Amino acid sequence: MGYVVSLDDADGQRAQVVGGKGANLGRLRAVGLPVPAGFCVTTDAYRTVVGPLLDQLFEPLSRVEGDELAGLAQEARSRVLAAPVSTDVEQSLLGHYVELGRPAVAVRSSATAEDLDFASFAGQQDTFLNVLGTDALLAAVRRCWASLWTDRAVSYRNTAGIDHAGVALAVVVQEMVQSASAGVMFTANPVTGTRRQSVIDASPGLGEAVVSGAVNPDHFVVDTSQRRILERRVGDKRVLIRSLTGGGTERLERPPGSDPTLSDEQVLALAELGQRVEDSYGEPQDTEWAIDSAGELWLTQARPITTLYPLASTSQQGLRLHICLTLAQGLTRPITPMGLAAFRAIGTAVASAAGVGSSDPGAGPAALSTPGQRAFVDATQVFRSRTGRRLMLAALSVMEARTATVLQRLAEQPEFAVRTAAPWSTLRPVARVLGRVRLPQRALVAMISPRRAHRAIDELEVQLRQDLAKLSDLAPERRLDASQRLLAERVIWFMPTVVSYALPGFAMLALARRLLRGALQPGELQAVLRGLPHNPTTEMDLALWRLRDDISTDAAARTALLATPRELAVAYQRRDLPPTAQRGLETFLARYGHRAVAEIDVGMPRWSDDPTHLLGVIANYLRQDAQTLAADAQFEASRGEAEEVVARLVARAGQRSRIRAAVVQFALSRTRQLAGLREAPKNLAVLALAGVRHQLQIVGRALAEAGRIAEPDDIFFLDLTEARRAVSGEDLRALVTERKAAYDAELKRRHIPRLLLSDGTEPEAAALGDVAPGALVGSPASVGTVTAPARVVLDPVGARLEPGEILVAPSTDPGWTPLFLTAGGLVMEMGGSNSHGAVVAREYGIPAVVGVPDATSRITSGTTVTVDGAAGSVLCS
Description:
Helix content: 40-55%
Radius of gyration: 31 Å
Mean pLDDT: 88
């Protein structure tokens, strides 16, 4: 490959040669889409001119930040701008410019790490418009090369985990479109996620005004499946950027306009063009476009929309509702492939037990899908049932009120109208499972004798531990069989079995509420649930605090535990901790070592595997004032407060009758004795998952020794079927490497939808809520809600943003990107949902509202604000 290649020859070239932008534009021209003619200065030219100058800076740049990063980046840019351009490179570049006819051109940076599936790098390198003449062209190319080393670009790559030594920059040179109007078009709605819904922002003049967020553009939303404009909002468009006759551009302030930039015919034509682009790539695209003075439409950019959540797979027709099971468990990180395999095996067993159909355990039930490496369940059928809907809303009103609110609005859509009025079709599968575990009998036992219920659950745990201990001497294939049986035959029954014992406690709480109707103060019944006994999670926390107390009284143990947790974990594994700490930790882990962070994922290390996190927690406990924190004292205080509330409520009931007081006394007593069992099912399930993990670890060691995977824990990046293939002799190291890369990419995703429709819509983002009285209103840009102090920044140079603060700015361009790394949210006075600031906010997963009039003057730094990125509102407290 030479130093310069025509865009007509760029199709099929690797991005490592022509950069992401060059490869995309070449592909669009190859399929006949209207892309201006031009050429690409390849990365060979960049490496020839610049490469040798920067080798020593790559490694330092990857590990610095702040002023040090800015200094090194400035040094890199200075070296690039001062580098002599070889004669071969210059002659090749100018020769192609002459062949093009020496027109005014747009000179665009095209980095190798750009327009990727997981990061768009929107605006991170420079573009120069209306460049005219050979000297200006050479200068613009050199400045594009230097823009690979701006503070923002270096910081962005550091955040994305991209090696500086592996990046290079090509430069796209195209005939300049002297546009009458221009802007940005997303072929899927970037805020709601809805596919087949194009979102267009438009403004007069050059598109830079829209892309940079310098203007409040006209905004259009088009249903491309029906060729219908759904939304039309005219912006004030107070800024116009246009070309100058002698080259370059100028920025003009203009009075606000009330006329739309585009006619309906132009809007629909743009949407149709966008669908042609999407069909060419097979996925939604972020495009830039321009319409010249003759009315001809041009494409100047296309890249993947990196912020859309993947679609949930379904074989069902029509719109479907999927609920994220893993997020409901408080888990935002992705699940390992083996963890997802466990979900599928358990799901298949649940479906079979409920009599609603089953499938291959490896595939999982039809209702389960795993977009974004998270577990979602198709709840459409239940939601379309009158009884199922009531039960869902009732449960979520207690567990997740915001989700319940969104579902209530979703219920108003015709696609989710009630189709089943009879309750039995919904209750039959549940009744079948509960009947199999003899719920009525177990509930009666718990009601009569809570001690028998507690003993029964303890026996379940003892039996499970004994069964796991028996799996000590098995061949790898049999260990995989044992893991399959644990998932399919044991885990699913812990929930309904233990719930049978816990349910009477909550039933009695409901009875007490009814008997005390009209006599309750707000929060009183909730106070009854404080300091509950027989809660495995609480018991674990108290045991950890007791271990802290033992260590705090032993000087050697206390000194040791205040060291680095990672070093302590190594010392523990070697049995080198001081005796008090070593014995105490061993005792604790023997009882609770199956627990972990993200413990529902069988692929995640247990505390017994790696106690680093646990040791860090103990160290933090030791640094606290024991009298102030004292978990055991706090628990006892909560228990005492709850008992006082019970006594007060019983006395209040006695004012009506002694019988009512006796019933309330009995009901609240059973509530306190049984409600704590609600954590027991998960404790047992996690214990079983830890047993599965242990079996898989042993198999993983054997596979690593045989060279079929690289490391023992690589088995967790396979599923059970693939693990069997490896046991049979197949080398799966390449597959593991691919899976790890996909997993690492998902770890960077910050926004996970609670609810997801089959067309990609996130109902929480689509159902714009009522704006609170007094809230500032703008355009939704990045979904989510955050409450934090505001920081008004008028100039990013030298600005400091504390982690989590809300960045309030007049507008943002790529120079603001370093501030986004610590921002908890974004508010902009200018810009649309497709402007640079909105795009980056979505990539970083921070809530954002744009186009908020006078935000920088109406919001004061330090004021607590709530940014609702779905409703497009900002509320100042």
